[in-house]
Amino acid sequence: RALWAPRFWTQIALSWEMIWSAPDVLFVPAHTVPLIHPKKTVVTIHGLEYEFCSQGYSWWERLYMRASIRYSCRVASTVVCVSENTKRDVMRLYRISPEKIRVIYEGYETNFQKNEHDPIFTSQPYLLFIGRLEERKNVVRIIEAFELLKEKYQIVHQLVLVGKPGYGYEKIKKKIAASKYREMIVEKGYVMEGQKWELLKQADVFLFPTLYEGFGIPVLEAQSIGVPVVTSNISSLPEVAGEGAILVDPRSVASIAEGTQRVLTDQNLRGGIIEKAMHNVHRFGWVACAKGIGDVLFTKH
Q1: Rounded to an integer, what distance in angstroms lies between the CA atom of residue 77 and that of residue 89?
Q2: pTM here?
Q3: Distance between CA 17 and CA 4 in Å, rounded?
Q4: Pairing verdict, β 101-103 and 185-189
Q5: What is the torsional sign of CA 165, 145, 106, 224?
Q6: Which of 69, 149, 167, 173 makes the best surface tag, with the fewest CB within 10 Å?
Q7: Are 99 and 135 in contact (CB under 8 A)?
Q8: What's the rounded Cα separation, in Å, for the pair 236 and 239?
């Protein structure tokens, strides 16, 4: 049933519910445990982006998330982390015992279907990024790498950016406006699920060299339909991508550009990472995720 509160829903409405109708087990799929909670409370930590990319968050957001997540990790009976990398971050930054943490990978969607109502928007080849257009997603360097690919290798591709504006979008907008290749940079904004998959399916390369990810579902989505991925060699992304991607230094424009060029020109490399990617995605799935969560919720401890 629905619980209502004008603000601070977790600490007011949910805490009140815990007083009058506490469950045997409380599962928090986000990251905030209510002040009042049962002895067996399981919390999920999806990542500590605000600790590693502080420029992407306001001081209030950083303060609130650091306090609430540290508290949640300390009082929960079990902490579920979505990757080994997130587990290491939680242990190191918040001093949480490894015995208290369970790593349960997220899954990815597999329901790709061609949508005849959303035809592909261009016959020109393109590189694709999908995600919020913000500083943490490293979009400015993606644009700079695209410019370098145009200058150094004369690629014929467009750069397609899919996603809503986020923190730092003004810098991204100015970067596009100042680019000599701005006519080749296409912003699609938010798109519906069917159109997203159609854009992804037709991309020559999926670019995801972000500065920090707790997991990285977009990488698996691209891998699952045979689109070669260029992603970061930091945070959880090497763990999630496995050998089915080109790993680059996300803080180096040259590294991003060179990794992308290798995928575009080396057909043996391209075919190899696509094949490895198709094997890699079998490690992940929502059924396995649900089973892992179920084991945690229904195990007595």
Answers
A1: 18
A2: 0.92
A3: 11
A4: unpaired
A5: positive
A6: 173
A7: no
A8: 5
Let me know: does 72 contact 28? Beta carbons within 8 Å.
Answer: yes
Encoded tokens for 8: 């601070």
For the chain, residues with pLDDT lower than 50 are: none
DSSP conformation letters of 270-300: HHHHHHHHHHHGGG--HHHHHHHHHHHHHS-
Q: pLDDT for 152-191, tens place per residue?
A: 999 999 999 999 999 889 999 999 999 999 999 999 999 9
d(CA 153, CA 232): 22
